[in-house]
Amino acid sequence: MRFLILGAGGIGSYFGARLINAGHDVIFVARGKQLEALQQKKLKLQHPEFCFFKRVVSYNIDEIKKIQAHNFDAVLIATKSTSTLSLANDLKEWFANKKQIPYIISLQNGVDNEEILSTHLDKTHIIAGLTRKIGAHIVSPAVISATGTAETILGAIELTKSNESFLNRLKEVFNDAKIPTQISNNIKLELWKKLIINNGVNAICALLKEETKTITQHDKLSKIVYGLMKETAVAALNQNIKISNEDVDEMFELIKKFDSIKPSMLVDVENNRELELDEICTVVIKNCEALGLDAPYTRTISSILEYLYYKK
């Protein structure tokens, strides 16, 4: 298949490297020092079970618009959720008056990306996706550190025979590339279950500048993590999504037993980048408020982090 990957950070680079290694055509869209490095030297990805060190093709977003959209089968979005609206506008411009367009697969954090994309693009071409049991980040420009299996779940926002066929094909491609993948008929539930993990560890690890293992193995801090996760499950009820206590326990045990990683928000703090607070924390607070409830764990952690980080 022919892939365009928007975002050559940890996740985007991992997926791209796996797909290239399996014989697929991949072009990256990057920016800044990462783009400059990818254009000048090889992409190096280090993983306990997989090493990649090859030249890759990379452009900026404006250069991509000069390429015909039908040259790609799929566009994987692996950027920060803070850039979704901007990317939706870029893709809308790129796809304008085109009869044949690629499928759009979001692998981003958060639960609102697909809704944002669908207000600008054909909903039947939008695929929601999530990865878990994966930690990946940029060590230095064009150098990526990754760990975990990158278990991936995909699902159409609006199922059709056409996108169902594409999903089955994409599942085979990912699995063959050693990205274990399954398809869900209730992808919104899966996105909220992923948010349970993200809200549970992202902000608190960024605030304390500690990796997940330190937080989840600590007697007192682990209780805060669990409280953050429970609040996310409550927030999901406002979207008519029911997440059981057993589901919360499963997500807690998953992150507790997984390799110690730096959540994306901690990496963003270390690199002075914009934080996905609205996309991970505020969405929990607002959905709880819509139910007439507060989210004290989430509000406290995110408010303190926001104050300390942005007062600089």
Automatic annotation (TrEMBL):
Official protein name in the record: 2-dehydropantoate 2-reductase
Role of this protein: Catalyzes the NADPH-dependent reduction of ketopantoate into pantoic acid.
Family membership noted in the UniProt record: Belongs to the ketopantoate reductase family.
Gene Ontology BP term (one): pantothenate biosynthetic process
Record EC number: 1.1.1.169
Keywords annotated in UniProt: NADP, Oxidoreductase, Pantothenate biosynthesis
Catalytic activity: (R)-pantoate + NADP(+) = 2-dehydropantoate + NADPH + H(+)
Alphabetized Pfam families for the sequence: ApbA, ApbA_C
Matches recorded under PANTHER family: 2-DEHYDROPANTOATE 2-REDUCTASE (PTHR21708:SF26), PROBABLE 2-DEHYDROPANTOATE 2-REDUCTASE (PTHR21708)
GO MF annotation terms: 2-dehydropantoate 2-reductase activity
Annotated metabolic or biological route of this protein: Cofactor biosynthesis; (R)-pantothenate biosynthesis; (R)-pantoate from 3-methyl-2-oxobutanoate: step 2/2
InterPro entries on file: 6-PGluconate_DH-like_C_sf, 6PGD_dom2, ApbA, KPA_reductase, KPR-Related, KPR_N, NAD(P)-bd_dom_sf
GO cellular component, one term: cytoplasm
Protein's UniProt keywords contain Oxidoreductase: yes
